[in-house]
Amino acid sequence: MDNTCSLTAETDNLITERRNSIVTTGKNKSSICCTSDSLAGAVSQRACVFCGARVVLNPVTDAIHLVHGPIGCASYTYDIRGSLSSGSENYRKSFSTDMKEKDVIFGGEKKLAACIDELVEKYNPPAIFVYSTCVVGMIGDDIIAVCKNASQTYGIDVIPVESSGFVSGNKVVGYRAAGEALYKLITPKEGDVIEKTRKLNFLGEYNLGGEKWVVERYLREMGIEINVAMTGDSTVEALKKSPGSCLNLVQCTGSMHWLANKMQEDFGIPYIDVNFFGADNTAESLRKIAEFYDDPEITARCEALIEREIGAVREVNEKYRKKLEGKRAAIYVGGAFKAFAIIRQLQDLGMEIVLTGTQTGKQEEYERMGRLLSEGTVIIDDANPAEIEKFLVEKKVDVMAGGVKERFLAYKLGVGFIDHNHDRKDGLIGFEGAIKFIREVYATTCSPVWKYMREEKGGSE
Predict the structure, then answer these.
(1) Domain covering 4-40+313-456, topology
(2) N or C terminus: which one in the chain shows less Cβ crowding within 10 Å?
(3) DSSP-based three-state secondary structure for 141
């Protein structure tokens, strides 16, 4: 990995097997260990395979989402995504086969089939996603056969999502399972004709706090239409039209690169990576899209939009930079695309990033991350609470950007926190999202509450 070297003394109190998953930027070079299964007993911040599939598919608004497993797995409801809908609210209902000991011993296929019958009768959905869980993977229920039979019986798409947790200790496997399920849904059936259009698909966008609608507004002003987002505010019908698009935008690379590659191979749809978090990233992404269309009018409207919006962001940035310059920040998020955006935004505020990492980063992404950061920054893959706590304290962090699992750890240590998780209800995308982010960084970093917490603990300024 470029510009990184393994930590030595700093990791003495950490789990020995985790040493290669923690590096620090510097002159020596060493590759970070990533994309492997989580270490048993390390209490990884990652979620399970089932969760990886669920967060990708759940925003399909008019589908039924059925969890085949014990009732506890169904705690991952629509609330694990702050996704909003402009139409159907079916996705907000959570269904489970509620497997008991008897089902584990004798099999749950009949129970699954009965649940599908009941759901079709009551809701008449256009599609049903059936998620397998750890127990199902262990006892060997054939959900593929059950789903195939139900599809033939009812004439709708009943799609198995093979997301049994014991398949792997890596949430990324769940992303792949979701991608395969989407691919089954969108692949035209024999006799189907998909009309080619100049619209684009937006992959890896989940409409958290209405973020898809923000980008949709920008593109519409440029003269470009979104066919469907995968999967924020999407419908089954719209998803099935996705093979007719001329371009795929990929925002969350971890969850959607596999599907983007399959659509390029099988449907001839090229893709480009985009990032709409932060003003500069937004401007660059809009310009990449305009360049693809190669239309002078689209390019002119794109530049007018950027010129109008980016000035306000820079004005707010300069105002708060004076208050935030030199503050020390940590970042731990799900995927690398989000980490890149937050690094850039915090650096623009003059803040020093001393710790960063992800749940699902890849080798090349960590190499790029290392090039963005100053010497001495700790980079960590698939962290656990003990490691995060250690570095938050040692690096004297003022503020952390992360998800729901990191929030309470930061607060208990007296560290400000910025919520960038997938369950948030407030959008942070685009130019207006950049302004919200800057103000949130200031509000939490400079809150007087941390001073009183330090005094309570007997610390000093």
Answers:
(1) Rossmann fold (3.40.50)
(2) C
(3) coil
Fold of 49-186: Rossmann fold (3.40.50)
CATH 3.40.50.1980 matches 200-303: yes
Task: Please give the Cα distance from 365 to 449 (Å, whole number).
Answer: 36
Q: Where are the beta strands (DSSP E) in 334-432?
A: 352-358, 378-381, 399-402, 416-419
User: 3-state DSSP helix/strand/coil percent for the chain, to nearest 5?
Assistant: 50, 15, 35
Round to whole Å and give the CA distance between 276 and 180: 25
Q: Show pLDDT as tens, one digit a residue, over the chain (461 residues).
A: 444 444 444 445 667 778 788 888 875 566 787 767 676 666 666 678 888 899 899 999 999 999 999 998 887 665 667 899 999 999 999 899 999 999 999 999 999 999 999 999 999 999 999 999 999 988 999 999 999 999 999 999 999 999 987 766 677 889 999 999 999 999 999 888 899 999 999 999 999 999 999 999 999 999 999 999 999 999 999 999 999 999 999 998 888 999 999 999 999 999 999 999 999 999 999 999 999 999 999 999 999 999 999 999 999 999 999 999 999 999 999 888 889 999 999 999 999 999 999 888 888 888 888 889 988 899 998 888 889 999 999 999 999 999 888 898 999 999 999 988 777 778 999 999 999 999 999 999 999 998 887 666 655 44
